Amino acid sequence: MCGIFAVCHESDCTDKFPLATAELHSSRQTHRGPDCRGSYVHPNTGDILCHERLAIMDLSCVQPLMGTEDKYQVIHNGEIYNHRALRNQQLAQYKLRTTCDSEVIIFLYELLRSGDLCSLLDGVFAFALVSADGDFLAARDSIGVKQMYYGRDGIGRWFFSNEMKCIEDICGPYTLAPFPPGHYFQKGRGFVRYYQPAWFDHRLCTAAPDLDALRASLTAATIKRLMSDAPIGLLLSGGLDSSLISAIAAREMRKMGLAVHSFAVGVDANSPDIVAARKVADFIGTQHHEVYFSLEDGLAIVDKLVWHLETYDVTSIRASTPMYLLSDYIRKMGIKVVLSGEGSDEIFGGYLYFHNAPSDEEFQKETIDRVLHLHTSDCLRADKSCMAHSIEVRVPFLDKAFLDVAMSTAPEHKRPKEFGGRLVEKYLIRKAFDVEEDPLLPREILWRQKEQFSDGVGYSWIDGLMAHCAAQVTDEELSACSSIFPLNTPHSKEALYMRRLFHAHFPSDCAAAAVRKWIPKWQHNQDPSGRASLVHVNSIAKELEK
Predict the structure, then answer these.
(1) Residue 188 and residue 162: Cα distance in Å, rounded?
(2) How confident is the model at residue 57 (pLDDT cuts 50, 70, 90)?
(3) Which positions make up the binding site for L-glutamine?
(4) Where is the Glutamine amidotransferase type-2 domain positioned along the sequence (predicted)?
């Protein structure tokens, strides 16, 4: 996990971007890679690669990494989980110099001379490389787990970076946008899609449910993400998704002789997530840590958090605040890698508003759309709120093999189903792990109702944040804000407050357009809180009747 910054000059560009300036812009994301830094300028093209490294695999090596000769260089942010297999098979003819997973990328390029190399990579990545013949290639992983942006300046030079803050003042007046997931960029060709599985088309998602395949593929996805030369921890909210990942990982980590630390965050010891996580940690046998934060703690870091997140989306900011504070605690323990449960709600329609889907077809379309935009929401939140403290987040639910199984399943099998007297979301994945012999989780956790992460840490956090924002914005300012922010106009005082913070850091129109707001579907309001769903309200009412 690191920070990358790259500059690509078209063949007719004579005004080369200065290396010293590139290194200065790259340093804005030093939090992503505090261990060491490196850079390279291609002697013929002037193309630049800058790297801020967080050492996780082969702790001694420094990027950029060289291929067979000096003019082949690569910088990479992410993890390539099948790098050992690639070394032993496709790259057996080459002599690689390190054990760093990133190194296989530049040698695959030398082998294939094409962005097709991306299809051979099992992992997550944002990378850029240069070659001896002057080629330049940049790419992003299939779903966009790794954050990446691109832009062009006024004379047509291309810029690439993990974080928008490195290039917004260069490219903001011209072209600036998220690098599209599942694509590579090649000099002279532009953007090319390399990832297009069958499940992109909802009409082809007709497979019968396969509980064994779901269980096996998620288990394999979790185990492969334990690859690390640095300490690993588990983010455990007590919800279904993080609990499943933590339980699978804890079993494997004990086999590997590793210490198993889990972490939960909430406003106090009685927060919904804290209570549930405590039960799970006791059941799976982790060394569990609880971190509490106050409303004042959260409010104190909101402005800094907006700078890190590079978004004004209310949902992302609400949920990132506890994650940011928790990451600070984890990093001080010396842990550099954590596993988390992002992606499951999008894959299985786990958000409570999915109960209101009007048809199987619309349910499936919405799950596909949510997965394809995870790079603007949960992946963005997890990556940037943790990387603010130099912690890499790994997300097994977004493994390509697991996605093929889960997303291809016909929607009628993924919709909420009756269990225990109520309709339960994510029924299919719960059922896949509901086994009598040696269960991973207590049944009360396995079948627990969904809480939005920002709700689960304690409802007082959201209520206090909304009250604080309301006190900073007048009714008149909210009514008039469409003239100031015509794009993605804020719909609430909280949204306007966040938009102002964002605009102060990133004033360009292109920066504003790079943000996608998370808005629930099929409900009468835009409030992202799970409590805004009638499903949640009815569930609480039933509990009170008992």
Answers:
(1) 22
(2) low
(3) 101
(4) 2-190
